[in-house]
Design a protein that fits this description.
Layout lengths: L4 E5 L2 E5 L5 E2 L13 H10 L10 H6 L20 H12 L6 H4 L10 H4 L4 E6 L10 H19 L11 H7 L4 E6 L12 H5 L1
Parallel strand pairs: 4-5
Antiparallel strand pairs: 1-2, 2-3
Helix pairs in contact: 1-3
Length: about 200
């Protein structure tokens, strides 16, 4: 079998087997930043014989990168439409944490002239907001858990950043002198939790 070690390569973590080759499978690395969670989940989706290739949407999304007027994209569709599948696909495609050529090379996205330009080129922060901490009795607990994981990921990936100098995520992100793609899935799931108050929902 393969023995994997966790190594840091400047801005991201990855598994390497004993031969030194990077591998994609394994437990989730980090929490949100360049995690392999979207890659693992999208690979599973591709193994489903009912999968429908919608990867051409990547071309449309890529055209919005570095476009200040189109940098916020909200995809709203009915339940079971495939939003999470598409979110996993985008996370697997853009992240620089893993080499995902093998799962995209036979999809329609590979026919785009932008395919190689954007594949595995970005720091991706992927958050599934339906994932709750084990102990979560309030909206404040929920947000505190997300913030803690975000800080942990950024400090691990950017060790040169002062770990005691930031109490604002925005300031910490700026201090990395890097850019990020945020992919936020199930963003409204928290609204249906019993502990949510009307004040929480309007905050």
């Amino acid at each position: 079998g393969k023995y994997c070690t966790l190594t840091r390569n400047r801005l991201y973590f990855q598994y390497k087997d004993v031969s030194g080759d990077s591998v994609s499978e394994g437990r989730y690395i980090l929490n949100y930043l360049n995690t392999n969670r979207p890659l693992l989940l999208f690979r599973q989706t591709l193994n489903d014989e009912l999968y429908v290739d919608k990867s051409l949407m990547i071309d449309s999304i890529s055209k919005c990168i570095n476009n200040a007027a189109r940098k916020y994209i909200c995809i709203t569709r009915p339940r079971r439409f495939g939003k999470t599948v598409n979110a996993n696909m985008l996370g697997a495609y853009y992240t620089k944490g893993y080499n995902s050529h093998d799962i995209f090379k036979n999809l329609q996205a590979s026919q785009s002239n932008l395919y190689e330009k954007h594949l595995n080129q970005y720091n991706v922060i992927y958050i599934d907001f339906s994932q709750m901490p084990d102990v979560c009795e309030s909206y404040q607990d929920y947000i505190k858990s997300i913030r803690k994981k975000m800080y942990g990921d950024l400090y691990a990936a950017f060790p040169e950043v002062d770990k005691d100098g930031y109490d604002s995520l925005n300031d910490l992100l700026l201090a990395t002198s890097s850019s990020f793609i945020f992919i936020l899935d199930e963003w409204d799931s928290i609204f249906y939790r019993d502990f949510m108050t009307s004040g929480d929902k309007s905050e």
